[in-house]
Amino acid sequence: MKKITSIVAGIFLAAGVTACGSMAMATAPVKTTDGVLTNAAGMTLYTFDRDAGGKSACNGPCAANWPPLMAQDTDKPAGDYSIITRDDGKKQWAYKGKPLYHWVKDQKPGDKTGDGFLNNQWHVVKP
Length: 127
Description:
alpha+beta, three-stranded antiparallel sheet, two-stranded antiparallel ribbon, globular
């Protein structure tokens, strides 16, 4: 009986650890080895100088080129991460109050081709 209890407890513990790990990595940005924030797939994240007060200034055609790092209704911000509401009502991740974006011209993890774009108004995020 003790052996069965230990096995069952081990299964529940493993399931709990797996669930916690997948929740943490689902949408929240992660830090890469070179100190630049990326999404879970390793794509570089950017901020826009025109954003202010936890509000995105990048909508419409801008957001087509700079897709927001979207948050789900179930996501829970923590630490320096927050979630803002965009003009269209959708949720977006922010770091230290600055909304986070991808750049459509970055093709693979580690690309940083948007850094300094538009007269140095777009920046990679370095925590």
